[in-house]
Design a protein that fits this description.
The protein is mainly alpha-helical. The protein has one domain (about 20-74). Helix content is about 80%, strand content about 0%. The chain contains 3 helices and no strands. The protein has helices at about 1-20, 25-40, 50-70. Helix 2 packs antiparallel against helix 3 (about 50-70). The longest helix is centred in the C-terminal third of the chain and has 22 residues, at about 50-70. It is flat and about 50 Å long. The N and C termini lie far apart (about 45 Å).
């Protein structure tokens, strides 16, 4: 039983590290993008533009946050 539990924990840690990684903000941006696109499609609004907008905004926010941390103003 302990061996199975160890495998399950290792599997969960792998997926957490793979999806979340070291930047939870980027993972949150992906979830916002998917949820927002789904919501727009449910309202019969074309959602092709939503993905690039969220990706650019998330990238800008992540880069800005990294630059602030690097400069020591955090």
């Amino acid at each position: 039983m302990s061996r199975i539990w160890g495998w399950i924990v290792g599997f969960g840690r792998f997926w957490y590290g793979f999806i979340i990684g070291d930047d939870w903000l980027a993972a949150t941006g992906v979830l916002v993008m998917l949820g927002g696109a789904y919501g727009l499609l449910q309202l019969d609004v074309p959602a092709w533009w939503f993905g690039p907008v969220v990706i650019l905004a998330t990238a800008a926010w992540t880069i800005r946050r990294g630059l602030i941390r690097r400069s020591g103003h955090d």
